[in-house]
Specification:
The strands form six sheets. Strands 6-15-16-17-14-18 form a six-stranded mixed sheet. The chain has a four-stranded mixed sheet with strand order 10-9-8-12, with no helix packed on it. Strands 1-11-20 form a three-stranded parallel sheet. The protein is globular, with a radius of gyration of 23 Å. α1 packs parallel to α14, α3 packs across α4 and α3 packs across α5. With 502 residues, it is an alpha+beta fold. The longest helix has 24 residues. One of its GO terms (molecular function) is chromatin binding. Keywords: Signal. It comes from Penicillium olsonii. This is Amine oxidase domain-containing protein.
Amino acid sequence: MRDWVSNSAARFVRRRLTAIWLICMISMGPQSPLSSPSSCLELKCLIVYRGPNWIHGVSGNPIMSIAQATKSVALDPEGKMIMLSPEGHLIDEEIASKIREFVSESVAEAFQYSNQQKENISAKTSVLSFFQEKLDDTDFSDAEEQLCLELLQFEGAGIGESIERQSLKFFSLEEHPDQDDYFVASTYQRILEHIAEAAKSHADIRFKEAVVSVHAAERGGNQDHTHQVTVKTSTGTSYTFDELVITCPLGWLKQNPGVFHPPLPGPLLQSIHNVSYGRLEKIYVKFPQAFWHINPNNPDASSVIQEQPVFAQFLSPTYAEHPVDIVWSQECLSLASLPAPHAQPTLLFYTWGPCGTEIVNRIADLMPHSRAYNEVLLSFLRPFFSRLPGYNPGSPECTPSSILATKWQLDPYAGNGSYCNFQVGIEEADRDIKMLRSGDGIGQKRGIWFAGEHTAPFVGLGTTTGAYWSGERAGREICEWLGLSQVDSNELRDDSLPSARQ
């Protein structure tokens, strides 16, 4: 998400600075989707996005406004949701609706409880513990209780980690502005191009130059703040700047504190350590035809499901081989359900936590599209897509024509992960986020400012919207510090959360 931050800060600073670019947006990576489709993957003549797919929250969301302005197609992918039991059987719709309703209501209650009782909740308490207590107050059967716990695992796809690791104390920091989540069917390409326009038009952008050191001494009483920050890259080139916006991922900051000279302030380093980093990955599997949208009327078909699913959830499958200590639940979205011309016969699987790591490690040294690569991913995916309606093992339409998987956990410039989360054990996550934003005053003292999804307003943490907001916030702070404008504080998104209003 580093490019979202850099570009939103650049857009704001460009509006405020009309003479010369004094701000350097540092993303730490060797490349950027500003100049190439590096954020996209080619899937047999189709383009899929390896970065974000969703816009979380619609009301007052700047990314949604940009999507509308650029005529990007974003929608709530409503449709049939199917749920399969650990044995691979379709769960009765009445039971499925019952447990979905319970889990949805319990998530909302957990947000509210986390927000209102934060001071009284132990840092060791997980969200799973809260749900187990809620289940004790129901009249569910043992089988229904187990299904509820299995379904709860899918909250891990949102936080990028197993739900057992999610802190209840700070679960409210996982809230979004509202309950509407829109899938960007046309991909984020036009949205990013729009946001990047100012930077591409007015900035000197350097690619394939990884940052290896940042030197920024304390300014002291010196009122001349020009050219006091020096950045050295892997090419041996040094650049000097007046102010520096660091937009690299939290994971990168965790692994590279030695880049900064003098060292970052102790309280800032501690907060970088305290906030966790997620492990969300995705796999696209394309077929010659969307067989799951065709009713086979075939008594030999392996699935008895007779409706066309948009979402499918596979609860802790006993029919799929996997490490016994790893939760193997999976969910997928049918891209065939998208409106034309964006519909494609493709399933999008999301993996997270230890399962995501296991899959990434299996393909770490394999060339994409190679036979070995395809066989590894097929062995993982086949137990799931083979239980969708219309599947026939003898039909070529049911054999994937292409598979692509992300490997963010192997990308050092992505911080070897996805985005921030708040795991069991963290004591003061809200204060840590505020520290990551402020840098413990390092901006005014040394000319280094921080932005990124991990510095976003609470309601935007871990999202592209939050990354965008953080870039604007950093740009405003610099302009105010330099005395270039008076910024109305009402323009800034605050840290209020929806659960506080309930």
